[in-house]
Records
---
Amino acid sequence: MSTPPALADTIRTHETPEGVRLRLRLAGPVVRACAWAIDLVIRLLLYALVVGIFAFFGGVGTALMLISFFLLEWFYPVVFEISGGATPGKRAMGLVVIHDNGTPVALPSSLIRNLLRGADFLPLLYAAGLLSMLVSRDFQRLGDLAAGTLVVYREREPERAELPWAVSVRPPAALSVGEQRELIEFAERSARLSPGRQVELAELLRGITGKQGDAAVCELHSYAQCLTPGALMRQEAFEQRHQSLWDTFSRQLDELERPRLRRRPEQGAGLPERYRRVCNHYALARERRYSPALVEQLHRLVLRGHQQLYTRRGAWMWRLLAFIANGFPRALRRQAGYFWFALFLLPALLIGVGCMLDEHLVYSVMGEAEVEQMESMYRPDNEHPGRTLERGAESDFSR
């Protein structure tokens, strides 16, 4: 499944100690809800399998069944997140859980974010978690805030775009290197743009091309065909000079991304030096405006290297205590109105509407004696609404 195009307000940037800005594409509530629904279906199937296995073992089977339910409910996401960064539902939607500094999620953080799902569920149907995501700049629910985690789109290997066919035509005016690269990028991305959008962008340069509509698009494609050989020669020379280093760095990352038990200490040798060199190449590729495919390829290598070098270790208990003592009260004060609405006013409104639709629903929240007292206080023949008929005005506290 392809990753949807990123919008400006869904991009989180993290600057590494090397001065490189990593782009993390945040996942919003809708796609995360879809991933949760997929995981729910998988868990329900597992629950049914557990029931089918242990239903014939009497009391011992019931005990094992309850233990299995507990483990599935609370540790199903933890196992998948620490092994690959995502549950099957998140993986199907192209998502991954990471720390807010771009490093892979570790066991302590995964435990914290998933054990706090009970708080996110309050008062019902994950209302607190959804509200927290909507008011958070990074779409973090309460568990994410406590664990310092983010849910982002998984980086995919970029594909090189092919220029649409056109007759090579030299541009009528001298263009800077940046302007030449922009023309080539327009041609490379044309296949992903609608015809109307292509025309809209091409007509911005009507003063240069002197054409409108589809003719303007074809003219820019012709300019790109003429400019591509020189630009490709510069980029190809850059790639040929450093490709061996990128391949070595990628293979080393593949080894380090294996499960911890299968790693060897010598696999990390030379990683910091290679990482710094790849960071420099990434900065050069962006400055020289090389093709988006090359820039994305280097960005992905830098992100993977950053995740291996700066993975959080230890001190998770202190982070949890700091969040309970400081982070959560501060977030609650900052968003107090939203939380009080979700915890008190919204449930009261839902219960009121439910009681209006079904008068018997009130007995699920109030006792029979309390209901009779309320009816007595607001009967039409009561001369003093809000006061029971058995209690006179002389018993009021104000008198």
Note: The chain is about 60% helix and 5% strand.
---
Amino acid sequence: MRRALAGLAAGALVVAGAGPAGASVPAAPQPITRPRASDWPTYGHDAQHTFHGRTTLTETSAAQLQTAWFFPTGDAVTATPTVVAGVVYVGSWDDTFDAVQLATGHLLWKYALSHQNAVTPYPGEPHRDATSDGGLVTSSAWYQPGNGTRPDLVIFGGGYTLYALNAHTGTLYWRHDYTGNPALPPLPDVDGARIFSSPVVSGNKVLFAVDVDGQRGERGYVVAANLNTGSPVWSYETDEDTAGHLLDNGCGNVWSSGSIVPQAGLVVFDEADCHFSNPPPTAETVFALHIDTGRLAWRFQPHRPDSACDFDFGASANVGVSTDGAATFLGVGGKDGTYYSLDPTTGHLRWKTNVVFGGFSGGFIGTTAYDGARIVASTAIGDFGRFESNGNQLCDPSSPADTAMQEPSVHALSASRGAVLWQATGAPSFAPTTVAGGMTFNGLALSDAVQVRDAATGRVLTSVTLPAPCWSGIATVGDTVVFGTGASEIGAPDGIYALTPGGAAPRQ
């Protein structure tokens, strides 16, 4: 069973325990604080999940990055921190969500989430499962400015629960459970459903998805929730057969976050495989929904089999938008080691580029970065992790490219043509890549380090050694890079890091 949380630090503004279900309306609305251009207000920086941020760092100052502060947590932090108006917001696998001062690393408030015992690992677990997909919080927060009656909110997933907290006080505004089987009451001791998906807000709708990780009798799906209450407005079923019948067979899982195509009124998700196969119509697809209705606009599925290869889609799509709001680019990487560029309004394939074979722990797992000209990303380890009695099981042993460890592991592609611009080895990653100031930022899968490269050439500018791996995305704010540490096999020492040139106090 998930252990009770330890006592919280005295002196901090703390909200102890999860609030009751339903909306909790504050006595008076908070002043409206809108994100600045230099902030990092959501997963992937923006609703298009470009992971293209801003920074005042240069190649020279980035080479001098050191720890400005470290905020310890009780377990891993794999969600990308959200940073708005000098406050860092992020949840941890220790079942809490924290707000921390960017300038000092001091705790502003802490919110304790509802326990969901079926989700592991958890703090203090004696034997951690290194194959786990993550603890209670893997979803990054969306920062939503208030409207005069509603306060500024941070909205995120914790297990199967979607939370909205007052961004200034940490008090609960609303919460709603989105379980693996919506027809049943919440069963936290047996239901391992999770909202891996980081929510995105469009109009009055909070868009996100649910993953049940193969749990029979349950299913994944996509939801639009009401911004004011958290209650569902519409849902889109991703676990249906070709006749439209719900299967509840543990499939239809969506890890990705919805990427907004604004002028067309679409949100784009992608879907994982189904028990190591890709049966039609939804498994291993990229799909766009009409935001107003949840109706399917288009669906793309690569023309390739998946015979126990585990060729999921899990990374979020990158969308490029012109100044007038028209979508000019849409692309996403898959665990088959291929990046696909699609027409944003039709889903038709424009180009595809394969860089590695992919497989169980390979291909594009972390979301790629898009700066308008390039896609830059790291692929993961390779076809490693499915063990049989005779050792590691490969998808296609006859292919020389299908290996447990796959290189190259860092890739830059032309956004217009898909041509490989440069590649590098020795840096596989499960984390998303950030691009800012002509540099890339990424945490490594097999080394306890964060690496910074020249985005034009791939040249390593610096590698900052850490006491634990970084599987979170990296937020760039002013001269500071902010990220979490921790992984499935290690629960401590983990927390939130802020790096600055020389370790000086962060400056925006």
Note: Residues 1-26 have pLDDT under 50 and may be disordered.
---
Amino acid sequence: VWVDDPYDPYDPYDPGYPDPDPWPNPGQQRDGGDKPPASTPWRDLLTNDDSYKDHLELVNNWYLEDENGNYILDANGQRIPNIEVSNCHYYAFGPNSDPNSYESPWTKFIAPPDRSNYTELPYGSGIQVGDRVSYFIWVDESSYALRHSGIVTEVDSEGYATKVSSRFGVYEPVEHHPRDVPPSYGPTEPSVVINGATRPSRIYYRPNN
């Protein structure tokens, strides 16, 4: 059962979506992948839209601008969408072959990512550089919203992810601890218990080739 994302799905500062790709093992506990960080500076800073603007740099503006930062208008006086706009899911997983995954007219703004060429890592797996991670908020024990995705860039000697590169909305990519994401992207704990059922806050994936 999928529900509408409790957050605005088209807000560039808060890109969350219902995920039509069901988690295959809803009864399995996932407490692997990463450990608590020493601090969470991004989570502490990025608490609302204004804080994103204060601390991050926009890489892709929603609409085309001239060299003076003014919007370029079409023949009807309307702003022209920038088709290069992308979000965290495109950054982490790349294009999606399903045209319905794109939010037109921003052809690189996708939700959800295409994970068909990735394998979900089971509990206890050692994480590797290049693995991907997706973040979830659960509404109940069977319904969730996909909130964020990133790329693992650093692991420790025990195989725990210690650093992820991701885009917070349409802002510049940043490197951060896997648990150091804005509160709107989910809890820091690796799993949550809802109505007695354990559900993952993060799932790690490995490219198949």
Note: The chain has a mean pLDDT of 84.
